[in-house]
Amino acid sequence: MATHIKLSLDTRRKDISAFPLVYRLTHNRRTTSISAGVKLKKSEWDQKNSRIKSTYKGTGSITRLNNTLRKRLANMIDVVTRLEDEGTLRFMSLKEVRQSIKRVSKKVSLFDFTEKLIIDMLTANRVGNARVYRHTLSAIKNFTKEQDITMLEVNQDFLHRFETWHLSKGNSWGGLSVYLRTLRAIYRKAIKAGLVVEEGYPFKNYTIRNGKPRKRAITLDLLQKIKSLKLEPGSPLFRDRQIFLMSFLLNGMSFTDMCHLKLSNIIDGRIKYTRQKTNYPFDIKIDEQLKPILEYFIQGKEKEDYILSIIKHSAPISQYKDVLWARSRYNKNLKKIGEMAGIEETLTSYVSRHSFATGADDLGVPLTAISQMLGHQKISTTEAYLAGLRTSKKDEYQDKVLKRFKE
User: For residue 82, which of 106, 101, 69 has the smallest C-alpha distance?
Assistant: First the structure.
């Protein structure tokens, strides 16, 4: 190949104390350079091994800086290799090759890129996702003490240091996993946008630990206790008990999705909707036990009215706040309901969803079916192999769970 790149110190200028470190690009016997963004003394540069010596004081970690420089060089070489494989390299000028490299290897701010993703999510009404990305960005800013970093600096060393910092604060593995999964998604989006190359992906050999999950499910017998409680019709406790049962009877539907349900989602004895969190389409049969609960909520309402009357606004952010406020009140009432039913486990909006999944699993419903009924899109290779479970089969499994609940 008539094109190659190497990292070197540009010492052509005289009478200066520090020289720029550059990536020297040679193409068809012509040469240009791309700045590495670092200036060094001659004594601080190891020309033989193409690395910065430990005597350099311009960074907090020589190892991290050298790793970043080598990774960027590898990214540049990858661009050249792809151009050669595509058969276009030999027809390109030195300037065109340099521009192609800079487009991919340019310094992309993690903070700026994440902010852009958050804005895009808010524009697309994905307020919940935007909130998770905002919390993740805030955690990273706390870790770096508000000092921005490039996407190329998000490497395995960064991940391990962030992990250590997070846990040293007494925080949980569960919270860390949320941040790291979000950061992983950010990096993947940067790859898709052509801002970094896949070879620099830092999560290849890094495992995100979830920690021990907190128990959230209760047995079907305890659900029966909640169902049998004598509560005053029309009271807040009665209303929220009905919402809790409604969630269970709709295959563990999330509280947010129930808030967004309208009468128009009820079609031919089924509830058809798209999950707010993932845009996953659902088509659920209305069980006989659910009909009186729906009747309680939809009396006197029009087709475009919300079934639960929780959302009061039209703007997505305002709707999100409506749901947050209602969920807080809902969880407080569920705690009281659980105490009244003699249930030790604290009831929350998640318990009905987890209980449906656990009840289905206890009755031998296949994991792939449970995954589809809950709308989980990623599971195992087996699920991918059996994807596209028939609606009639899902109805059969739903009947199996709810029949046991009715007994």
Answer: 101
CB atoms near residue 122 (< 10 Å): 18
Q: Tell me if 308 sits within 8 A of 323, measured CB to CB.
A: no
Which residue type occupies 204? K
| In the chain, domain spans | 3-105, 110-200, 220-406
Retrieve residue 8's tokens: 């070197």
Q: Tell me: domain 220-406, CATH 1.10.443.10, correct?
A: yes
Let me know: does 354 contact 244? Beta carbons within 8 Å.
Answer: no
CB 196 within 8 A of CB 103: no
Give the model confidence (pLDDT) of 62-104 as tens digits: 887 888 788 888 888 888 888 888 888 888 999 988 888 876 5
Find the Cα–Cα–Cα–Cα dihedral 260, 264, 266, 272, rounded to 10°. Answer: -60
DSSP letter assigned to residue 50: T
Contact 71, 155 (CB under 8 A): yes
Hey, which residues does 281 pair with through a beta bridge? 274
Q: Answer whether 197's CB lies under 8 Å from 191's CB.
A: yes
In sequence order, what DSSP letters do the residues of 173-197 get, joined into one string? Answer: HHHHHHHHHHHHHHHHHHHHTTSS-
Question: Per-residue pLDDT for 166 more than 60?
Answer: yes
Up-side HSE of residue 332: CA atoms within 13 Å toward CB?
7
Mean pLDDT of the chain: 85
Q: DSSP string covering 117-172, please?
A: HHHHHHHTT-HHHHHHHHHHHHHHHHHHTT---BGGG-SHHHHHHHHHHHHHTT--
DSSP 209: -
- What pLDDT is attached to residue 362? 74
